[in-house]
Amino acid sequence: MKWYDPLLLIIFMFVLAACGSPAATPTPTPTAETITQALPSPTPTSAPPATQTTVPHTRTPAPEPATATPVPTGAPVTSIPHITATQNSPAGVTPSALAGPGNPTAMPQVTPSPTSEGTAVATNPPPPPAGSVPAPSDNNYPANDDKVGWENRIIVPAGFDVTYIGRLVDKPTSITFGPDGLLYIAAYGGDISGYSGNIYTMNDNGNVTLFATGYAIPTGIAFRPGTNTLYVSSRVVNQNVDGEAKVSIVNGRDLVTGLPCCYTLFHSANGIAFGPDGMGYVGVGARADHGEILDGSGRQDELHPLEASILRFNPDSGDVSVYARGFRNPYDIAWDGNGQLWATDNTPDFDPPERLHRVVSGGNHGYPYYDCEVCFSPPEGVTVIPPLVTFAPSSSPTGVTTYLANQFPGYHNSIFVALWSSFPGAQKIMHIGAGGSAPRNFATGFAAPIDVTVGPDGSLYVVDWATGIVFKISYIG
């Protein structure tokens, strides 16, 4: 995400207060840079309680909306945690959202100026794409536990219905359904420097149970098809220089370690998906904004062999290779019904449009070669593959899923993307037709939607980082 992304921005502001002052359909064939890695399992700790709703702004951190209640370790929970925004993360939270407990207040929408880094000017939100649902006319969010208020606020196309399922007190980062039919939610308790990250389950009634604990900012989770084995991406050393991330088997062992980390909050090992070849794939963010050395010199850094890439890993041995390169922050990835991999990506701080890539095996999709005064040009022989779809600048695309169910008529194999920030044109779920088409608004009115997935019933499930709320969108005709 961008340095001004909601989630990072919010966290940064909290820190200041305390101190007083991401063509043709390719066949998935990995490239040859192989590395084998395996290590121990995380040390469990309990997750700290969460507080209230905040909405993130985008520029490299992550987002956050409504209020939540802490989830006790090791016991079922009946309430669900909430989320906060920052830079370099999904949706954008504004400063007013950091004011303390209570319901979020109306937030001004701002857009960063491309000519003045770090500044933003108030603007009117862009008009919705043709065929889209409109956005709510205000940002007067309901209380986090106001089910009817939130169900009435979320706007979906005619024939669809929204249900408030439940709420998490921690800050959700990703969701997936397990073979048991339960929704699994990765989240962290607010301490981004420690092992306060947890994985919960939620049933149809919204009841939450702790499933696993002891991870540093778990960001991606996925079940290996045909098994009960859950994989998670998280951090080992949480610092932007010489940081480290990993992929682990939940309640098992560390499988892939030594992954580059952590330019900003969500620039790490992120979304995980299993491909049609049975291998695991994980997106890994870049270690800088546009490939520079982080010493203020403006010089180009030498890329880590595994940064800014989609990696392919063996789910048994942990052997890993680079599948594709050039992603500044691929927050999430998903395979469609044609064996095509898709990845969301957060662009640099000079604020070009955000991206959805149709991933080409062995290709370079942009990073660190961008068009700006301080950016670097690609060397001779390197061809940059442009994104297939773009979104509003600073909108922070995070979760992505492909719709392979049959409940939604006419939507099979289409794509849904969460836009996490609170900048104009975000705080919503967008729909892209099968194979790629102009995106349009599908569901609006969220605070900071961070991930989306399809349930066993064929409904679309959305989790909101700022409020911790899980919503179900169903077709009722």
Helix-strand category: mainly beta
What is the molecular shape?
globular
Low-confidence stretches: 3-52, 58-123
Annotated CATH topology: Neuraminidase
- Count of helical regions: 2
Distance between the termini: 37 Å
- What's the rounded overall pLDDT mean? 80
Q: Work out the helicity level.
A: under 10%
Strand content: 25-35%
CATH class division: Mainly Beta
Secondary structure tally: strands: 28
| SSE sequence, one letter per element | EHEEEEHEEEEEEEEEEEEEEEEEEEEEEE
For the largest beta-sheet, the strand count, sense and barrel status come to:
8 strands, antiparallel
The CATH superfamily is known as TolB, C-terminal domain
**Rg over CA atoms:** 20 Å
Number of domains: 1
Secondary-structure arrangement, i.e. CATH architecture: 6 Propeller
What would you note in describing this structure?
Strands 3, 7, 8, 9, 10, 11, 12 and 13 form an eight-stranded antiparallel sheet that branches. The protein has one domain (41-48, 143-475): 6 Propeller (Neuraminidase). The two termini are 37 Å apart. With 477 residues, the protein is mostly beta strands. The model is unreliable at 3-52 and 58-123 (pLDDT under 50). It has two helices and 28 strands. The chain is globular and about 55 Å long. Helices cover 4% and strands 33% of the residues.
Short description:
The chain is mainly β and 477 residues long. It has two helices and 28 strands.
Helix-strand blueprint:
Layout: E1 4-5, H1 6-19, E2 56-59, E3 76-77, E4 110-112, E5 120-122, H2 147-153, E6 160-167, E7 171-177, E8 183-188, E9 197-202, E10 208-223, E11 230-237, E12 243-249, E13 254-261, E14 269-274, E15 280-284, E16 309-313, E17 320-325, E18 333-335, E19 341-345, E20 354-358, E21 389-391, E22 397-403, E23 414-419, E24 428-432, E25 440-444, E26 449-454, E27 460-464, E28 469-475
Antiparallel strand pairs: 1-2, 3-10, 4-5, 6-28, 7-8, 8-9, 9-10, 10-11, 11-12, 12-13, 14-15, 15-16, 16-17, 18-19, 19-20, 20-21, 22-23, 23-24, 24-25, 26-27, 27-28
